[in-house]
Amino acid sequence: MEITFDIQRAPPSATDIAIAREKLLQDKAILERRDWKIFLAMIMVMISLLILALTVGRPLLEQGNSSPTIVTALVLFTPYIVFWVFAIYGNIRQQRVDAPKKDVNNALASLAELAPDEATSVAAWNRQNTVIAAYQALLATQGRPLVQGEADAMKHWVEAHASIPVTTD
């Protein structure tokens, strides 16, 4: 459950934020487990390449009548295979773990309570804009503190409407 903060609508309740935070923490734990699974798969491929080199290459060298082409190919091409394993691992990890983990961390940061020094600057916006004042009044009736995502939405609102001249009749 992802919460979007829109200051023109009713603010989410503390229960909604707690549920969203719990869901995001579960998603983060799943991504961390997935990261370990991909890492272990890469290690298994590396170990299997080493076992292949030891079980095939070593007996060929000890017999004396081994084909130098097979041994040379095994010795020379194994590092290239290792390079491709690391390259593919990095790409898979980026797509399946890092990018979603970054999104989850950003969403968790937006659900964090606002720092006290930032709360004073947000309270100043209350006097400047009636939409923000109404939103903060709804928050006061809920009795919960402002979260970072709401402060960001208010900041975007102030920046977007600061250039509009105020007309007085």
3D architecture notes:
With 169 residues, the protein is mainly α. It has 2 domains: 14-110; 116-161, no CATH class. The protein contains 5 helices and no strands. It has helices at 14-63, 68-110, 116-128, 130-142, 148-161. Helix 3 (116-128) packs parallel to helix 5 (148-161). The longest helix is centred in the first third of the chain and has 50 residues, at 14-63. It is rod-shaped, with a radius of gyration of 28 Å.
Blueprint (SSEs and pairs):
Blueprint: H1 14-63, H2 68-110, H3 116-128, H4 130-142, H5 148-161
Helix pairs in contact: 1-2, 3-4, 3-5
Short description:
It is built from five helices and no strands. With 169 residues, it is an all-alpha fold.
